[in-house]
Amino acid sequence: xxxxxxxxxxxxxxxxxxxxxxxxxxxxxxxxxxxxxxxxxxxxxxxxxxxxxxxxxxxxxx
Length: 62
Prior knowledge:
The protein is mainly α. The chain has a domain at about 10-40. The protein has helices spanning about 10-40, 55-60. The chain is rod-shaped.
């Protein structure tokens, strides 16, 4: 037999914790969506690898 008394303070804390959890999940979803949109909408990306690239040299000479 367990004694389980839930006061008003426990209910308020639980609702606040649920609110914080929902906000965190929404923030994580927002960051993921923005990252996916940025990745899928970007064109070809060339990293700087300390090697001459003819495509870049042609663009700079024009």
